[in-house]
UniProtKB/TrEMBL annotation, chains A, B:
PANTHER family: BIFUNCTIONAL UDP-N-ACETYLGLUCOSAMINE 2-EPIMERASE_N-ACETYLMANNOSAMINE KINASE, ROK (REPRESSOR, ORF, KINASE) FAMILY. It comes from the Bacteria. It comes from Microbacterium aquilitoris. Belongs to the ROK (NagC/XylR) family. InterPro entries: ATPase_NBD, ROK. Pfam families: ROK (PF00480). This is ROK family protein.
Length: 300, 300
C-alpha cells in the first residue's frame, strides 16, 4: 500500500493507494503552520489512511522548492523557510518519504488519471501560477528544479509590477494574489468576485478578467511552444471557475491562431483540459512517486 | 563513417565523421532551389565527403517541419512545400537518411561539442527565431514536433505585428526578417547595419536594437523557466555579432533577476553560451543523428 500526501496552504489531503492503483482511504485535515506542525500533520495523516495496514512507500507533495533529497525551501505560506522534510518524517514514522514539489506531484497524478498521454503539463492557477511537466509518466524537474516555473515569464512590459520586480509576469495578471492586489477590495474569493463584478459590468473587474484570460492563454502557449506537451491540464483554485475561465481562454487561443497556419496546426485550444473533477491529483501523484526517486510510470 | 549534412538557406554543409567522432572531411556548396535541386546537392555532398569510403549512415538537417519519417514540409526559403526527402535521397544513394529539423540537429551537435551538459537549448537567431532542445543527447521534438518553437511567443501586446498575426512575437523583434522589415532600408546584413547605426546614435536603430535584445532575453528566460535547460547556446546569423548581442542580453537578464531571489537563483545570464566558434554544429548534429530514428547520445 502506497501513501500519497498533498500538503496545501490550508488543508493536507492524504490517500492510500493499493497495488491496483485504487484509492482505498483518504484523510483530510487542516495544515498547521511551521515545519513541526506540518510534519505532525503528515505523520498523523499517514497513520490515518494506513490504519492497521503495514507501512508502505510514502510520497509527499509540498509547496516551495524541493531538492531531490527531500529538503523543502521557501514554502512561505506554510511558514517554512527550510526543512529536511524527508529526514523529519522518516525519524517519526520509520519510512523515508519521496518529497516532490506539489505542482509537479499533481502533474504526475493528472497524467495517471487522464486518458494516456505521453506528455502533459499541469498548470496550477492558484495564489501563484506554475506548471508541472510530465513525460512518459516522469516529472520533469529540469537542471535546477525550475522546469514549468512559467509564472515569471513577462508577457507585457507595460503590465502590472510583479513582486519579483518584473512587469507583466503571467503570475501578476493570472495568479490569485496578483488579481487580489489589483482588485484592492478585501474578499475571501477575490478572483470569483472579480468575475462576478465583471459580469455585472464593473470596468476594473472587466479589465482584470481580460488580463487574467490573456495571462492564462499566454501560459498555455508558452508551455506548448516550448515543451510541446500533448495536453495542458488546468487546476488550482482559479480553475474552479470552470467554463467562465476555460471558454474565454480558448477564444483567446483561437484568436492567436487565426492568423497563423503554424499556430492553428497546434490546436492550442483543443489541447486544454480541466483537471479530473473531484480527483485528488496531488495526493495520487505523490503516491505514484512514492518509493521512486525519479518518479514512476502512471499506474502502479 | 557517418555523414551529416546541414541544408541551409544559402549553403549546404556536409561532414564525414569517423567512429571516434572526428570530422575527417567537409564539403560546402550552394543550396539549390526546389526539392530536386536540394536532393541533388545532398547526394553530391554525400559522395564528396565519402570519397572512396564505404557508405555509412547519413543524417540531414533541414529547415521546415520534419516528420519522424523524413517528410519535409514548409521549407519555404528552399522553395519546398512538401517532399519525402528520406525517400528521395534513399532512391539516389541507396542509404535512407535520418532527417531532422535543422535547428534540432544543430542542438544535438552543440550538445556534443560543448562540455558535458545533461540539457541544452540551441537558440537559433537567424531570419526567424527557434530553439532546439536536447536532453541526455536526445533531441526533444514534443507531441507535434513543435518543441522549442518559441519564435511565436508574444512578449509585448503593443509590439510590432508579426506575419503570424500576433503582436510582439519574439521572432518579430529578434528575427532578422522582422528587424529588416522594421528597419525598412535595403541591406545585405540588416541586423548588423541596425547595430552599427545604433552605435552611431540613430534613434530608430537604437529602439530596434533594444527590442531585439529584449526579445532574445525573453527567449532565454522562456526556455529556462519552462524547460530549465542547463545551457542556452546562441547560434545563427544574428549571434555572429558576438558580444554586441551577448553583453546587452546578459545585462537585461541580470536586470530581470535583480528584483527576484528566484530569478537570481537561476543564473540566467551565466547559462548563456555562444555556439562553439567555427564548429559545423548543424552538420555534426545531423551526423550524430544518422542511423538513429530517435537520436543518439553525444559522442559516437
Amino acid at each position: 500500500m502506497r501513501v500519497g500526501i498533498d500538503v496545501g496552504g490550508t488543508k493536507t489531503l492524504a490517500v492510500a493507494v493499493d497495488d491496483g492503483g485504487r484509492v482505498v482511504a483518504t484523510d483530510r485535515r487542516a495544515t498547521g503552520r511551521g515545519a513541526e506542525a506540518v510534519v505532525d500533520g503528515i505523520c498523523a495523516a499517514v497513520h490515518a489512511v494506513l490504519g492497521d495496514a503495514p507501512p508502505g512507500p510514502v510520497g509527499v507533495g509540498m509547496p516551495g522548492q524541493v531538492s531531490p533529497g527531500g529538503v523543502v525551501r521557501h514554502a512561505l505560506n506554510l511558514g517554512i523557510g527550510s526543512v529536511d522534510l524527508a529526514e523529519a518524517v522518516a525519524a517519526r514514522i520509520g519510512v523515508r518519504p519521496v518529497v516532490e514539489n506539489d505542482v509537479r506531484a499533481a502533474a504526475v497524478g493528472a497524467a495517471a488519471l487522464l486518458p494516456a498521454t505521453d506528455s502533459l503539463a499541469y498548470l496550477n492557477l492558484g495564489t501563484g501560477v506554475a506548471a508541472g511537466i510530465v513525460r512518459g509518466g516522469m516529472p520533469w524537474r529540469g537542471a535546477r528544479g525550475a522546469a514549468g516555473e512559467i509564472g515569471h515569464l513577462s508577457v507585457d512590459p507595460a503590465g502590472p509590477v510583479c513582486p519579483c520586480g518584473q512587469r507583466g509576469c503571467i503570475e501578476a495578471v493570472a495568479g490569485g494574489a496578483g488579481v487580489a492586489a489589483r482588485w484592492g477590495k478585501p474578499s475571501p474569493l477575490p478572483v470569483a468576485e472579480v468575475f462576478d463584478c465583471a459580469d455585472a459590468g464593473d470596468p476594473l473587474a472587466r479589465s482584470l478578467r481580460a488580463d487574467l484570460v490573456r495571462g492564462v492563454a499566454a501560459a498555455v502557449q508558452a508551455l506548448v511552444l516550448t515543451a510541446d506537451v500533448e495536453l495542458v491540464v488546468l487546476g488550482g483554485g482559479v480553475s474552479r471557475l470552470g467554463e467562465r475561465v476555460f471558454a474565454p481562454v480558448r477564444t483567446a487561443l483561437r484568436a492567436a491562431a487565426s492568423g497563423s497556419a503554424f499556430l492553428a496546426s497546434l490546436d492550442l485550444a483543443e489541447r486544454l483540459a480541466p483537471v479530473p473533477a473531484g480527483e485528488p491529483v496531488g495526493a495520487v501523484g505523490a503516491a505514484l512517486l512514492a518509493g521512486s526517486p525519479v518518479g514512476v510510470a502512471p499506474g502502479l
